[in-house]
Amino acid sequence: MNLSELTLEELRQKTEDRPYYLDLKYYGLIYVDYEMFRVYRSFEEAEYKRSVRSGRCKITGENGHLKRCEDDCSQCSLIRSGKDISLDMLYEQYELEFCDNSNDLIDSIQETEKSNYISAAIKKLPDDEQMIIKGCYFDDKKITEIAADLNINERTVRRKRDHALLFLKTELADIDDFL
């Protein structure tokens, strides 16, 4: 018989085919078969293990990636003592060093702004010149491939590329002043 077909009162009665019980928060004790008991317990055990793992420290493993600490938390000198953890103490005891990446962040923002500025300048070009610039410098296509894609001869592609580069040079002349 399928357990979903039983009423709550029937589930509360122990039978030979349902010798295992689960103590559920809202329903109280219900009796289930081994398969249902095993499924419910596996989820319950997984949730318990997840809660235990989430309470553990993250440390650097052998390959440099973070992993959960597997040591005894009661013996941990950093967490259980209640002492403040300072950067100086981490350096002195564990030789951990921290670097200031604030300049890298500024450089990254400037590179993004330059990229946006260049993209805006390329969008001002006519469509065929945009395709030529993107093909030459972003897609690493050869002049012959671009000429075949646009159904024009190679000399025209070179002329339009040179025209587009001259336009971009004047358009982007003040990019360093801007950033």
Task: Lay out the secondary structure.
Layout lengths: L7 H4 L8 E5 L3 E5 L1 H21 L3 E3 L5 E3 L18 H8 L7 H22 L3 H12 L4 H8 L3 H18 L3 H4 L1
Antiparallel strand pairs: 1-2, 3-4
Helix pairs in contact: 5-7, 6-7
- CATH C-level name of the largest domain: Mainly Alpha
CATH architecture of the largest domain: Orthogonal Bundle
First and last CA, distance = 74 Å
The main pleated sheet reads as: 2 strands, antiparallel
| Domains (count) | 3
* Strand order in the sheet with the most strands: 1-2
Low-confidence stretches: none
Radius of gyration: 34 Å
Overall pLDDT: 77
Q: In the CATH hierarchy, what is the superfamily of the largest domain?
A: Winged helix-like DNA-binding domain superfamily/Winged helix DNA-binding domain
Q: Which range best describes the helical content: under 10%, 10-25%, 25-40%, 40-55%, 55-70% or over 70%?
A: 40-55%
**In terms of structural class, how would the helical and strand content be classed?**
mainly alpha
Order of helices and strands: HEEHEEHHHHHH
Give me the number of helical elements.
Answer: 8
User: Could you give the count of β-strands?
Assistant: 4
